[in-house]
Amino acid sequence: MLATETVENYLKAIYLLQREAAADEAPMGKIAAALGVTAGTATSMVKKLVAAKLARHERFGGVRLTAKGTRAALDILRRHRLVETFLVDTLGLDWSVVHDEAERLEHAISPMVLDALDRHLGRPAFDPHGDPIPRADGALQESEAMPMSELGSGDAARLVRVLDQRGDSLRFLRASGLKVGATLRVVAIEPGAGVMRIRPDGGSIVSMSTTAAARVLVRPTRDRH
Amino acid sequence: MLATETVENYLKAIYLLQREAAADEAPMGKIAAALGVTAGTATSMVKKLVAAKLARHERFGGVRLTAKGTRAALDILRRHRLVETFLVDTLGLDWSVVHDEAERLEHAISPMVLDALDRHLGRPAFDPHGDPIPRADGALQESEAMPMSELGSGDAARLVRVLDQRGDSLRFLRASGLKVGATLRVVAIEPGAGVMRIRPDGGSIVSMSTTAAARVLVRPTRDRH
DNA sequence: ACCTAGAGTTTGAGTCGTCAAACTCATGCG
DNA sequence: CGCATGAGTTTGACGACTCAAACTCTAGGT
Ligand SMILES: [Mn+2]
Ligand SMILES: [Mn+2]
Ligand SMILES: [Mn+2]
Ligand SMILES: [Mn+2]
């Protein structure tokens, strides 16, 4: 919209890297990797963001969005996640493919179409992966959740969000019956092997690495064993 | 998809200009005007299309798409018109605004999303303006229709297509009750003034210039006067 | 047959986003 | 401390797309 498609992609990437970094700063290398460009390209692009007052950056330091940059990033994130929701809920596409589609469509959605889409979908608060959808005013409520890897043996929980957008991860989870909203129970943990065994309600037991499990967020349920 | 977004726009513009030109050739100046670009830019871009075997062109002559270029143009046209149909039928947007929206969205629709959209819409044959939607294999059936300007006084007809995509034209037609599928009758013609008076079924009489009426296509109905 | 107005082309230059490769900085290991 | 290594930056170049302005061709009217 206001910015070019490339700028929109940088803003979104920086926003997401900033959330996940401890220092609340996006490292230049990660930005470059997220966009599939060389570090030099990312450096020069960040300079333009700084010139446009969308980001702050000092030589050899991390990148941080300004309030204006954050607002723009949230707007793009809203478009991205509403499009994903549309592709799954209305068109019936699989949640493992919609991320890449939304990556392109997000740049072509005008405010008018966005609002019509939002209305058509019933103003959803979460996308198919459980990611919160920023509201039109930029408000964003993250859902309370913990990594599935932190559950103990025997614990029951509801799956509320999947952080990994990679297609093969999502296909594995869907095939295992682990979708957003599903309830599950930890049947065993093998700390030595770094593996936990999970039984989704109404499904059969699956094993996954604790690192993979850490990218799945759950909310523990009162345990009616 | 295969081509860049700019190339897609050129191909679609050339295709449409070729259809409407007597010589089945798109004049360079019209191409430039359609894309909002200088004539020099269009010339150099057409050279690239020729190099890519998408078009034929000799110096100072008109531009003609190759079979490959025509196929690509039909593919873009299909995306454009399906998107327009979606915006009107599913999202409820007005037919006067969807053209510009589709102009951007058409480039971001993958084959997978396109097919899901097509299925969701019930594989429509015509878009909201009555323009035929090319099929996935490139087949395109134009509907039989004549310009409304060629009707005689007293003639009854059904409106089947609107050629002018300009927002104000479409808003005028909608406000007058002249939408695709509506039946109407010519109540008077003023050749001197270049105006004809039309009564849409269930609406009140409106005047429009014969040049405007020439851009509205109708199919005469058996006249139960 | 000419000449000119309009249409089309060429040229030179600029912007945007990108890369490769040379370079600089920060730091933690020895 | 000193310096090697990895992270980040700079530079020069390029492809895609565009414009302005100079130039060239074509066709229609006299
Ligand atoms: Mn994107
Ligand atoms: Mn998502
Ligand atoms: Mn377009
Ligand atoms: Mn249309």
Mind describing the biggest β-sheet of chain A? 6 strands, antiparallel
Helix percentage of chain A: 40-55%
Mean pLDDT across all amino acids of chain A: 94
- Taking pLDDT < 50 over at least 5 consecutive residues as the criterion, the unreliable ranges of chain A are none
User: Structural class, from secondary structure content of chain A?
Assistant: alpha+beta
Provide the list of bound ligands, each named once.
manganese (II) ion
Question: Count of DSSP E strands of chain A?
Answer: 8
According to CATH, the fold-level topology of the largest domain in chain A is SH3 type barrels
Quaternary organisation of the protein chains: homodimer
Looking at CATH, the homologous superfamily of the largest domain in chain A is: Ferrous iron transport protein A (FeoA)
How many helical stretches of chain A? 8
What is the level-2 CATH architecture name of the largest domain in chain A?
A: Roll
Largest interface by residue count? A-B, 18 and 18 residues
Strand proportion of chain A? 15-25%
The topology string of helices and strands of chain A comes to HHHEEHHHEEHEEEHE
Global outline of chain A: globular
Q: Which strand order do you get reading across the main beta sheet of chain A? A: 3-8-4-5-6-7
Radius of gyration from the alpha-carbon trace of chain A, in angstroms: 19 Å
Counting structural domains of chain A, the number is 3
